[in-house]
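name: query_chain
kind: protein
chains: 1
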Amino acid sequence: MTPRQLILNIQPEAEPRFDNFLPGDNLELLLALDTLARAELQEFVVYIWGAPGSGRSHLLHATHAQAHGLARFCTKGIDLPEEMPRLLVVDDVDALDAEAQIRLFDLINQARDGAGTVLAAGPCAPAQLGLREDLATRLAWGLVFGLRPLNEADRATAIKERAAARGLALPDEVARYLLTYGRRDLPSLLATVDALDTYSMSLKRPVTLALVREVLSDKVTK
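structure:
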């Protein structure tokens, strides 16, 4: 089995939770979402934006799960309800079609009138989403958080913790190489650690710079 096949066969992450999200400089956001999930946040709309791989979908799923059945989760506007639940979680708002934009607009108005809270997320700030101007304005009415990327030290901590959880001794030189030449987003880095562990066990070889170069080279060329 090639390194590429191993990476593609990596199992999905554990169920998204607040306690398996590395906050870095996003602790204020994490605390706000925990408060929201407990129905103790006095806001009717919260919007999160960040690049793919930044963790915004992880946080939305974690908030939905923490709300213990009192939240409804939608993505790209599919199955938006007509009546506002206590917590409505909407991912990928940039993909809303015209009808879904109108419906979300109405739901935010219901939330403003006390029906619940809308938690939404997209890849950029509301004004840059390319949505109806009135909807973009409403998404910016409440709390707006731009996810701050993890710094080098945070990402190093994350991959070392992932390796330790798998019982893998990850040499410092390998960690530095991954941070320098691997994909910058955390999910890809963690998937590479998983692939390294599986690949090294399949070949009965220790994790070395030579091994990580094989894996990363295969990811690029396949």
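note: The first helix runs from residue 3 to 8.
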